[in-house]
Design goal:
The protein has 197 residues and is mainly alpha-helical. The chain is 74% helix and 0% strand. Helix 5 runs antiparallel to helix 9. The longest helix is centred in the last third of the chain and has 29 residues. The chain is globular, with a radius of gyration of 16 Å.
Length: 197
Amino acid sequence: MNYLAHSYLTFTDGQIVGQFLEDFIKNRDRFSFPKDIQDGITLHRAIDTFTDSHPAIHEAKKVFAPLVRLYAGAFVDVSMDYFVANDLSLNSLSDWKAHSLRVYKVLNTHEELLPENFKKMLVKMEHDDWLYNYREDWGMKFSIQNVLNKAKYLDKDIPVYEAFLNNKKILQECYDDFFPDLIAHAKGINTLIQLDS
């Protein structure tokens, strides 16, 4: 899952911070953060593990694998945020906007805990409102190109965005089969986290 899904699948402000930090810190550093942020890191890892093993995600990867091979998972993650952002059974448009603004506010409130590379990304994320704009095709084009630009061994002109556009129906079906299961899993992990507190 990508940034929007991870931020949606949180239960406290600290978990929001932990969910975002996970991709930017070394494993040994996770215990230097307050407990609720550690909980967010734990939740992020549980979400990723569950996602990687879900049959619907395996199907979704087939859309991108012919173009990008082992990077298919990264493009599925970005694609799923498009469907999360457009899932009005989860939130209305105004609620998604409020969610995005809240996430940026929470992250900025915890700025002293954020690594420098994440702070730089957060400025761009907030300025262009990545979380809210995942709902737009142009937002997806930007996000997919961003992944391509960061991928070490991929040509920057691979038509991944076109594959996304041409396979929206398949990807939507994969999302529909997958995301309710992920929500239930995240709630279960959060319950375990609270019991462990």
